[in-house]
């Protein structure tokens, strides 16, 4: 069958809709016709419908068989398609210059959202987040002044509601931090391993309602110490290492007994990872993981957190056991020790100001790497957003992506719920 394309176009008013099944009037529709000719059959006009300007309308078919379409093209009667778009015009005054002799132009892979998405090297999902939650003995949720949007949650009510929201957004990992009554604090922090203390009770309640929830715990004495330090303080102000490790082992076992999935020593005592691993295994908790605060720096970014837990040191600072922010290679020493002692996850704290340390651990250890986007980082982004100095949501997401790009597998962040909701909205 031979056919030719008829160049003139007829207006829609010239088409009898009753004779063309599937057509409906549209003033924007554009049509062209094919004139079919055959020796054996009389000529007939075939309708060709171009892509509609209304993108919601579907393109109408010609009613031709595959063989007829191929025959028409072979005969030189190629169906019309939209013309080649005109070349965009540069603004007036643009200099006319010869093209640079570049064999590689990286911008080619960035020129559209689809291409940028296709070549994105780092991904971010709610599964990467661990949500730090503050708990207390009270019934009501108490706002934390230095951390807008964060609360000390009542362990029986507010906490359960917050965990439900997080799970709905895809965040199924949390880490608990307790605000312990002052009357229960002591120089040796014995409340840390009370099986009926705030943290063990909370773990049991959470596991009863959400058995698949991944619960991380903090292993350190500062919330339980009347001195506010991570370890036992000698009368001359020295933090006692080995005696503190003894207490930490009992604390970790108590948390594991309650149902914790991952215990997280944040104290920075020497040898505590190996001692905790041995204590857990001796009690039959071989399945409980250890996330070690491998590179925890004596940072000024922790201030809002200490307000949240009312755990500021009563005297001095934490520089004799937390790392010097000026040190880089020292993180490798801590990494090798924690690996050899049986750590399952290595954590860097703080996060964004220490991206180089995250990358250092990523490049030198096969273990999963965690980063803690700490309270100071969170509060600065929140404050900048309130003052309209930055776009809070965009800066939040960029900061989290940067932590992932540096090498963090998981991120402890107070933005976990907010960021997860943003990601869910993007996916929809």
UniProtKB/TrEMBL annotation:
Residues 104-113 have a biased composition (Basic residues). Keywords: Allosteric enzyme, Chlorophyll biosynthesis, Chloroplast, Heme biosynthesis, Lyase, Magnesium, Metal-binding, Plastid, Porphyrin biosynthesis, Transit peptide. Its cofactor is Mg(2+). The keyword Electron transport does not apply. Its EC number is 4.2.1.24. Catalyzes an early step in the biosynthesis of tetrapyrroles. Binds two molecules of 5-aminolevulinate per subunit, each at a distinct site, and catalyzes their condensation to form porphobilinogen. This is Delta-aminolevulinic acid dehydratase. It comes from Rhodamnia argentea. The gene is LOC115736054.
């Amino acid at each position: 069958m031979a056919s030719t394309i008829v160049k003139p176009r007829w207006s829609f008013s010239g088409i009898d809709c009753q004779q063309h099944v599937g057509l409906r009037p549209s003033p924007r529709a554009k049509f062209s016709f094919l004139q079919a000719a055959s020796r054996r059959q009389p000529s007939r006009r075939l309708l060709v419908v171009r892509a509609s300007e209304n993108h919601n309308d579907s393109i109408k078919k010609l009613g031709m068989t595959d063989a007829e379409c191929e025959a028409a093209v072979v005969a030189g009667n190629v169906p019309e398609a939209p013309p080649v778009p005109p070349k965009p015009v540069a603004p007036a005054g643009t200099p006319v210059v010869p093209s640079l002799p570049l064999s590689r132009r990286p911008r080619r892979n960035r020129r559209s959202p689809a291409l940028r998405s296709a070549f994105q090297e780092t991904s971010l999902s709610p599964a990467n987040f661990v949500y730090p939650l503050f708990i207390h003995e009270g019934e009501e949720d108490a706002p934390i002044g230095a951390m807008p949007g964060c609360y000390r949650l009542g362990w029986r009510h507010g906490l359960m509601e917050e965990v439900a929201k997080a799970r709905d957004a895809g965040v199924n990992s949390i880490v608990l931090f307790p605000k312990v009554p002052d009357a229960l604090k002591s120089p040796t922090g014995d409340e840390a391993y009370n099986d009926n203390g705030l943290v063990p009770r909370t773990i049991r309640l959470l596991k009863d309602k959400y058995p698949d929830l991944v619960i991380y715990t903090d292993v350190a004495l500062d919330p339980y110490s009347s001195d506010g330090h991570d370890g036992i303080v000698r009368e001359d102000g020295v933090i006692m290492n080995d005696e503190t490790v003894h207490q930490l082992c009992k604390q970790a076992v108590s948390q594991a007994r309650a149902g914790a999935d991952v215990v997280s020593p944040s104290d920075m005592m020497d040898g505590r990872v190996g001692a905790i691993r041995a204590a857990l295994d001796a009690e039959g908790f071989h399945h409980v993981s250890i996330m070690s605060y491998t590179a925890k720096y004596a940072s000024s970014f922790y201030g809002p957190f200490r307000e949240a837990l009312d755990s500021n040191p009563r005297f001095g600072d934490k520089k004799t056991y937390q790392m010097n922010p000026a040190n880089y290679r020292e993180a490798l020493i801590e990494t090798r020790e924690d690996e050899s002692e049986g750590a399952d996850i290595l954590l860097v704290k703080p996060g964004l100001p220490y991206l180089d340390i995250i990358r250092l651990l990523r490049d030198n250890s096969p273990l999963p790497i965690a980063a803690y986007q700490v309270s100071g980082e969170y509060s600065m982004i929140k404050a900048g957003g309130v003052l309209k100095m930055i776009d809070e949501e965009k800066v939040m997401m960029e900061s989290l992506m940067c932590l992932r790009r540096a090498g963090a597998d998981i991120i402890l962040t107070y933005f976990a719920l907010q960021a997860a909701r943003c990601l869910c909205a993007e996916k929809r």
